Amino acid sequence: MDGRDAVRTLGRFAGTGLKIKATAIASVVFVIFLFVVGIFGAGTAGKALADSCGERGTPGVDYGEDTAQQPTGNIRKNQIANAKIIDKAADGGGLSGRATLIGLMTALQESTLLNIDYGHLDSIGLFQQRPSQGWGTETQIMQPKYAAGMFFFGASRDTSAGIHGLADIQGWEAMGLGQAAQEVQRSAYPELYDGQEDAARKIAAEAGIDLDRPGKGGDADEDQGSGDDTATTSPNQDGDPDAKCYPEDADRPGKPGDAFHDGDAPWPATVENPRSAADAIAWAEKEAKTGGKDWYRACLAFVARAYGWSFSGVPYAIDHYREMPADMKHDKDRNPPPGALMYWETGGRAGHVAVYLGDGKIASNDIVRPGYIDVVPATEIETKWGSTYVGWAPPYFPKGG
Amino acid sequence: MAKNDEPTPEEWREILASYSYPEEVKRTKGRRARREAKREHRDDVRRRTKEYVREERRRDPLRPAGALIIVVVILGLGVGARFLWPGLLGESHKGDRATATASPMPGAQEDEEPAATPSSSSPSPSASAAVDLSKPNHVAEEAIRIYLTRNPPKDGDHTASALRAEPYMTAALIENLAGHTDPGWSKLVSRGGVATVRTVKVEPAGTDLPVDTPVRVWRKTTAKVDVEGYEDYSETTVLQVEVTNGDGDGWRVSRILGL
Q1: Residue A203 Cα, gap to closest chain B Cα (Å)
Q2: Predicted TM-score of the model (pTM)
Q3: Complex-level ipTM
Q4: How many Å apart are CA B78 and CA B99, to the nearest integer?
Q5: Distance from CA of A372 to the nearest CA of B (A)
């Protein structure tokens, strides 16, 4: 072994040590990664999201999976037994699995699928049917088989008079599930039936009920061939539940007016501020980028500060507009010049004011982050807060100081 | 891995070209015997190579199957941690149930006197406070009190109060409330408001909503909300809430009408 061999061996040894260290570090990082994947991967699939679909405050009824909220013990046994009876009644009458699903959703909403002997007024049973309204005697309605039969077929399958069941409703197969239930039940809150779909499907699965069962034809089930879910409009069955679940635009309280465009109106000579319009715009934009949480409930103070004042001298934004000289007020005009002050009625005493930056944008407090300044389209005040645009005025602060 | 120490393909070719049998094999008399000796030598080399590989594998601490098992075990530990420690990702939902003792049957028309206690206390109740899920009226009251108590500069957005109410609401409702925008929140912010709930009155929901069952009740909640803002004002918010207790483990608000 000559000198070069010795150096090479030494280098190889040192390299091996480094490799061992690097491998050890990489292994530890990998183990931590796997652990975190295990934590986040468990039970985070879209199930809860799907259950949470629905209008604001009315997600699918969350009976949970296995443990959370799902009825257990005798209650669950009773529900399953009642589900089977409902399915048998539908099947016996030649109705499809879709009819069973509607029946289950209805009974879940009315009685939590329990055959209760009480209810509002004289309502009783699985479907909360009323003897006084012709649904049958108390004894009859308390028999789930009878109650289910009445729900599906009404008092008489052969007449259009009297109590109507699901099969009597023309086109029920093509209706939304909740809508079909409502056609029979006439509830004050029809929107609540759809929230029971997931719970109904879970019970059906536990009870071994085939909800895809086709109907047996005839008058009762004329549209059976259209498939079970063709008319289902439940958003949680679509490919992109998030988009369907929470349509933000639909939630917004206000509709935007026309877009705002830059106008060209030089300020009157009386408009004098410590800061020019261009400097005020630059200051407002900088505040939006780097400013702190100083502006909650301080819209008028913000626009005054933007123009270099310490205070505006007026308590409320809307008063600032009202007190403007008439020739400075531009009611409802949607072409404010950059640097103009824009005003809105918010439904409260104070109203709102923001600085127009040009190109349809404003710098406003609270509109995105409460307490901060953000640059947003001027129409956001209308769409997000439901406020009414009053007009614009030049940055005139006669009481400013 | 000492991959760089391994011969390159060219080096392998050189090695094979220079491959020669031991002298004793070459010197074997007779063509047939020499061929036999060469064959035995090749067999011997192959056998020794096999043994060498087997030995190396034995020494190797980690085989593919072993590595797979370790990966599965670590993943399993992660999953286990999630279930053993439900609050790990901010999910105190199930953990809160330890304090809950639910009454199995609220009665057909529960006439429980709502507590209606003033709520001048902190708008953000301590998460560690005991959560009583045993009475649907109490659950409805607390859920609405917490949900309508809002401090926009502190909360940031409308999801904060929904998340604070999490012990009293189902997961689907929390997700639903967080997923939708909230006009009530926007209205509060546009008026520069900070809302505190003075009282919540809970009473039966009336005959338009389904009757109480052992696992579900509907209640009408009437909340008096004080708003401190550009101007101070009070408002009354009436909401119909569904409270469910499917598994007998505690009541929770599952749906809210009137938001």
Answers
A1: 13
A2: 0.68
A3: 0.74
A4: 26
A5: 9
